[in-house]
């Protein structure tokens, strides 16, 4: 389960398919091929989005494997 305090680089390493889903939401986790520093919660918040809502949707998506 992805929680808001998970570092972006760890998210991408553990759940590589999350990158495509997040990009569809206009949340870009990489810049020039390198992970963005910080947590996924901080990244979502910086886009003005509801962290809990986006993470719930992301976790549902990842559970579909």
In one word, what is the shape?
A: globular
Q: What is the radius of gyration?
A: 10 Å
Distance between the termini: 13 Å
> How many structural domains are formed by the residues?
1
Q: Uncertain regions: pLDDT < 50 for 5+ in a row?
A: none
Helix content: 40-55%
Brief digest:
The chain has 65 residues and is mainly α.
Commentary on this structure:
- The chain is mainly α and 65 residues long.
- Helices cover 52% and strands 6% of the residues.
- The chain has one domain (8-63).
- The protein is built from four helices and two strands, in the order ααββαα.
- Strands 1-2 form a two-stranded antiparallel ribbon.
- β1 (30-31) and β2 form a beta hairpin.
- The protein is globular.
- The chain starts with 7 loop residues before the first helix and ends with a helix.
- The mean pLDDT is 92.
